[in-house]
Write a structure and sequence with these properties.
This protein has 228 residues and is an alpha+beta fold. It contains six helices and 17 strands. The strands form four sheets. Strands 1, 2, 4, 5, 6, 10, 14 and 17 form an eight-stranded antiparallel sheet that branches. A five-stranded antiparallel sheet has the order 3-7-15-12-13. Strands 8-9 form a two-stranded antiparallel sheet. The structure holds nickel (II) ion (NI). Nickel (II) ion binds next to loops.
Length: 228
């Protein structure tokens, strides 16, 4: 499932993030990629251990925590520490690649399975030319370029790229999620059901017997499919 999640960050948070990123010690983006994707990756990234990264990680994680649609769509069990990248100038693209299935969390023995890939946009679409995130799907490819503060989530197993940025700079955060529900298909069904239930609740009320029954079905499906 590819989903546009709106307003993960507030305009104030975007401003703050942009200020921090303007002073940040950017480095080569290839430090966190595997051998195959390193060959097509040409961007800049913030070092994982620097102070700016920590400040911005808190900011992004706070945005995710308060967002109900994000939670329902991703059903996160683990979220990898968000990373930050910049495309522009001579470091302006990332060709077709797949993300590694496992991510080792820096400085720990922990690892997560990358069920869901996420990008939060920090730059407005008008700030740069090109720079679309293009995700290949069985239905064809989907081009994504969102407002600052918005996020796209998409299946971790898809081939994707970032088109060359030919003018301006594209700033974003990216990270992965290990979901409590491993299957993309099951997660999608649960999300659809949750969204429709939300709609139904506003139409007929929380205590309608059908709403109570279907809410039970949603939770029973969760119980059947989820790992905590
Ligand atoms: Ni990727």
């Amino acid at each position: 499932m590819l989903l546009h999640v709106r307003e993960v960050l507030t305009p104030d948070e975007i401003r703050r993030a942009t200020e921090v990123l303007a002073q940040a010690p950017w480095g080569d983006g290839r430090v966190t990629s595997g051998e195959q994707s390193a060959q097509v990756k040409n961007n800049e990234q913030l070092p994982e251990a620097c102070e700016e990264t920590k400040v911005l990680q808190d900011l992004v994680l706070r945005g995710l925590q308060r967002h109900p649609i994000f939670f329902s769509a991703a059903l996160p069990r683990h979220i990898s520490p968000p990373l930050f990248n910049r495309y522009g100038g001579t470091n302006n693209s990332f060709g077709n690649h797949v993300d590694s299935a496992v991510r080792y969390l820096p400085g720990t023995a922990e690892r997560i399975r990358t069920d869901v890939s996420c990008t939060v946009f920090f730059s407005e679409p008008d700030d740069y030319e090109g720079g679309e995130l293009v995700i290949e799907d069985t239905f064809g490819s989907k081009s994504v370029k969102l407002a600052a503060g918005d996020m796209v989530i998409y299946p971790g197993n898809s081939v994707h790229r970032v088109n060359p940025v030919t003018q301006g700079h594209r700033l974003a955060s990216f990270f992965w999620i290990q979901s409590m529900v491993r299957s993309n298909e099951q997660r999608r069904l649960l999300f659809d059901m949750d969204m429709h239930l939300m709609q139904l609740r506003t139409q007929v009320g929380e205590t309608d017997p059908a709403v109570i029954g279907l809410t039970g079905t949603y939770h029973n499906l969760l119980r059947m499919w989820l790992d905590v």
